[in-house]
Amino acid sequence: MKGGKLIIFSAPSGSGKTTIVRHLLEQSDLNLAFSISATSRPRRGKEKHGEHYYFMSLSEFKKHIKNDDFLEWEEVYRDNFYGTLKSEVERLWAEGKNVIFDIDVVGGLRIKKKFPDQTLAVFVKPPSVDELKIRLKKRSTESDDKINMRIAKASVELATAPQFDRIIKNYDLDTALKEAHDLVADFLKTKA
Q1: Which residues are listed as membrane-spanning (predicted)?
Q2: What is the pLDDT of residue 6?
């Protein structure tokens, strides 16, 4: 696989990475396209196949693992697999786009390791774990047990921040959005 640039945004759930990635996708000067992840978890709310995720059964996901169809994959929670299909990245590169990811920390670091020169890996750091809990509760999409699982996982994820190329502290959204844009724009100017 060889193509354009890869921009990874990783963070604990509720840190604001999805908001930042959506903002960057709206900036035409960056020529970005979103890499849709595959998952074995059930759909939530109004999520659509091929727009939010490629939803697969557990057996279908495991078949793709066996066939080496993923650039990276991870069992994030028990029987909830997430991964990046190689075909998805190749499709976006064929369109002449730079690929942006909203991905968990383990997957993000795996892509960075495979493509060190053409990848910018950014960690979005929340104000605090308490603030994360407040943000997750406001979503009203998951049970308290699921939220507590995400909070427990956040502590582990926060410890990986130094392994990323850059850390954006999302204490103020407008500041974080500007910092993310400037960071990505500068990276896209460099040679891979």
Answers
A1: none
A2: 96
